[in-house]
Write a structure and sequence with these properties.
This protein is mostly helical. The chain has 28 helices and no strands.
């Protein structure tokens, strides 16, 4: 397959499975104007996040203004208007004008409203709020799709429909003035925490990811992964796991990660001997895991830190063990599958030399090292992102082959601001859900209803939370799904005695895993498009391979030591070691291969060992080690007998001959 064909396929898949990439291209002067707005937005965000001083509500209003204008310029209202154009449509221009009126009114009158009128509204405030909400819904429909927009519309209607609803979900109802005040003028609705995080942390880290990518970091990671694992059994699949994991740490988008790395790794896996279903599933699972992997963890990690009121490094630290266990499982599933079907690696002459790779592009790891070092020392994510971005440009200049020219820097500013539109609009529109829950006490009502079903049974409450997270995550951004579930269900888990960090991480994991959970598994479907397998079969296989991700949250819910949230660091490190042994056993049990092919009893023994070892505790660990030792000795003895039998047969054949 030619590179041009690959590129077209990537673009088609992104447009098909990720609404954030269904953009429109312009011709001539309009294209330059749009590029100019994108660059100005990036520079504005960099300035206000690092040097400028702007009130929170005004910062968010400017951010939303740019989001809305660019949404109407870049994202078509319908398929008919999606082709290349010289000018925006009339409807686009009307939406942009309404955005300028509503956002301009907010920015120009906010000081008067807050300081001179002491928060008392005049009639025009409500009309402008309604106008601002309407354009936000229209932009959301274009950018993040119908699913999330409809959910948010239902929540908005709920504010007014309370008196007509029966039982516990009913309420007294709220006036137009009250609803618009909460949703638009306050900090609990559209301009709430989620949009605030988008306007600061998320934008800068998306921009950093664009700079890192355009410096050649993607190629560097792929070559490192090939050097490390390409020559081993089933090498291409291991390259997919390593490469997708590293890239996911930076970009946080499961679908984009599948398409970017999968265009290379999936054909390699198929060529090596993996069936298309397995190849697509490996890439989907590996790409989805990037959302859980520090240091960036997509957008939800920053929002979690704001919700919990803790430093971001606490979230980063908590995610280390779950992310590690997730990727160890995938890696070992790939390894055991390769052993089972007798696959080899890539020929050594086709693998880059590690020393040469590090010599040519090893300097590109400097920005990531700077970012991790700064975040670890307690520097705010804003400053860490700015310094890491500067470090990216400077590091690229250390070699002529990776040097970022002014043109590449401008392209990175454009790509970064474009990439921030999707998650930014999701954060804006989901504010309607958060505002509704705050205004109507819906979260408390739903929590009490779940509690009435689950009683004091934490497992049942967690199971219901898991289903809510996965269902809400189907077809909508994981960040938005996490915000909704964290607002509704996380407080319930906390009420049952779960530490807040574990409760939020629980919701976060399942919201992200919705990308590989049928019937709407967007990452799996994108991978299926590259592998040529059935989307549903790839989705089901992805769930099997990523089973650790579905199991693990229950363990850290009961024992937060896996989140470095225990009494001592040594306890967490010990839990990490034993749980790593556990997930290796889980992979072996899933694939039916350990030292050699397993029988049914050995397979059951490995799966039981997996659960015992993942669950931190002395008794469970000792029991698990004992069972594992029995299985290993049994397999070793069986292997020796098989080898001896083969040698006898060979000798007999020679004598007969």
């Amino acid at each position: 397959m030619s590179q041009a064909t690959n590129k077209v396929t990537e673009e088609e898949l992104l447009r098909q499975y990720d609404s954030e990439f269904r953009t429109r291209d312009y011709l001539g002067t309009t294209a330059k104007i749009v590029t100019g707005i994108l660059v100005i937005w990036s520079l504005f965000q960099l300035y206000t996040s690092s040097f400028g001083v702007l009130e929170a509500i005004k910062m968010r209003a400017w951010h939303l203004g740019f989001l809305l204008i660019l949404s109407f310029l870049i994202y078509p209202a319908s398929k008919k208007s999606a082709n290349k154009r010289k000018l925006p449509t009339v409807w686009d221009m009307i939406c942009i004008l309404l955005t300028l009126i509503s956002m301009g009114y907010l920015l120009l009158t906010y000081d008067t409203f807050a300081r001179e009128r002491f928060g008392i509204h005049i009639e025009m405030d409500y009309y402008m709020a309604a106008l601002g909400m309407l354009v936000t819904f229209e932009a959301s429909r274009r950018v993040v799709g119908n699913a999330l927009t409809i959910i948010c519309a239902v929540f908005l209607i709920y504010n007014f429909a309370g008196p007509m609803l029966p039982g516990a979900i009913g309420h007294v109802g709220f006036s137009f003035e009250r609803v618009t005040d909460i949703m638009f003028w306050g900090s609990q609705g559209i301009f709430g925490i989620a949009l605030g995080v988008s306007a600061t942390y998320i934008f800068l880290f998306v921009l950093f990811g664009a700079f890192l990518k355009n410096s050649g970091f993607t190629d560097f990671i792929n070559d490192v992964a090939l050097s490390l694992a390409g020559w081993t059994a089933g090498g291409p699949a291991k390259v997919a796991v390593i490469g997708s994991g590293f890239m996911g740490m930076v970009n946080g988008s499961a679908v984009a990660n599948v398409v970017t790395t999968g265009a290379v790794t999936i054909p390699l896996m198929k060529k090596t001997g993996y069936n298309p279903k397995f190849a697509g599933a490996v890439e989907a699972v590996a790409s989805t895991g990037g959302q859980f992997a520090p240091p960036i963890m997509g957008a939800a990690g920053f929002i979690m830190a704001e919700f919990l009121g803790v430093p971001y490094r606490t979230i980063m630290l908590a995610a280390i063990i779950p992310a590690l266990l997730y990727y160890v499982t995938i890696f070992m599933v790939v390894h055991f599958e390769a052993k089972k079907i007798g696959l080899t690696g890539i020929a050594k002459e086709n693998i880059p030399n590690m020393v040469q790779v590090l010599k040519d592009r090893g300097h590109l790891i400097i920005p990531l090292a700077v970012l991790i070092a700064l975040l670890s020392t307690g520097v705010t994510p804003l400053y860490a992102a700015v310094f890491a971005l500067i470090a990216t440009v400077i590091a690229s200049w250390l070699r002529k082959s990776t040097r970022m020219t002014p043109r590449i820097i401008i392209d990175s500013l454009v790509e970064g601001s474009k990439g921030a539109i999707g998650v930014g609009m999701a954060c804006a529109i989901v504010g309607v859900v958060v505002g509704t829950i705050s205004l109507t006490s819906l979260g408390l009502t739903l929590g009490n209803n779940i509690l009435s079903i689950a009683g004091e049974n934490l497992f049942l409450a967690a199971l219901l939370t898991m289903f809510i997270s996965i269902i809400l995550g189907m077809g909508i951004p994981a960040t938005a799904a996490y915000i909704i579930v964290a607002t509704i269900a996380a407080p319930l888990l906390v009420k049952l005695g779960v530490p807040p960090l574990a409760a939020h991480m629980f919701a976060f994991f399942y919201a992200g895993l919705s990308n590989i959970t049928p019937p709407v598994a967007l990452a799996a479907y994108a991978a299926a498009g590259l592998s040529g397998a059935s989307p549903n079969k790839v989705g089901i296989e992805a769930v099997r391979i990523g089973l650790t991700g579905f199991i693990l949250p229950f363990f850290f819910l009961y024992n937060p030591v896996l989140l470095f949230n225990g009494e001592t660091v040594s306890a967490s490190l010990l839990a990490m070691v034993t749980a790593t042994i556990g997930v290796v056993c889980l992979a072996a049990g899933l694939q039916g291969w350990f030292l050699t092919k397993t029988n049914i009893i050995q397979r059951i023994g490995l799966l039981v060992t997996a659960f015992l070892m993942i669950d931190p505790g002395l008794i469970t660990d000792i029991t698990g080690i004992a069972i594992l030792a029995i299985v290993a000795i049994w397999q070793r003895m069986t292997g020796v007998k098989s080898k001896a039998g083969s040698e006898i047969n060979d000798s007999t054949s020679k004598i007969s001959g």
